[in-house]
Amino acid sequence: MDTCMLRDPLEAIGPSCASIVLSFLGPHDLARSGAVSRSWRHFALLDEQLWWPHLAQLWEGKVYVPTNLREVAKTSARRAYLASLRESDRQVPTEQELCAFTWELRFKAREGTKGGRDREASVPWFGSELGLLILHRYFHPNHTVTGPPDDPLWGDVEPQRHYWYFRPGPDGSTVLQVNTYPFLECRRTPDWSWELHSAAVRLAIDAAAGPNPGIPPGHPAASESLPLEQIEAKFTGLLAFAYSGRELDDDDYDTEDPEEGGRNDDGDDNEEEEEEEGEKCFVEDRARDES
Fold it and tell me: Where is this region: Disordered (predicted)?
């Protein structure tokens, strides 16, 4: 029997041709092909040139790609690709991420009005005037919230100091609390941005407006030094009072469009072969979800 018939086809055609052949595979099939043999594993999982196009396509059009993923990509496009898939499942921004952006705030207009980006019924006393407002808000590391000068709603001087903090929400989720307003649920969008929403308002990252400019010098919020523990204690008490002194239950947390929160998997690397098998299964699961 011809020994060529017994050779691995990728070894038979040589590395250059093997890379060309495998370059036609999508990330799902590329990950699966690594289980065929040692040589296929070498080409499919260790040839970085095969993964760079998939990583570039995955990142294309994304509002936010964390710096740590870009650092991973410098050493391994495949690992950066898989880490990016896991990152996109993370529903809640970190405090640093929350404070990094300019957020556009819109009130949810009444059903049938032309204001706002939402058509669903929400808060009945919000008219088209509020729905037409386009506002910007900035979250700061000292847990204050500010708006730009000449804000359409607040004017030059905000009517009260606004504070923010993350706290536990319903069903084990994490929500963003601003003063005693209805809490904001966090969810990831397809462009890897975030959306913060309640029954009344929706906030989204305004990439065109640039990053958070910080608190202007002389602004009252610049000198704010209230510790986070005191902020949480203050508004926990006020929220309890607002709900007639009773403990908050699941009915109080009821808001529109409930969605299951994602998770952030940041575990340590396992042994190389177990890791690659897990990565292959992960890519397969994501491909099935997206098909």
Answer: 246-291
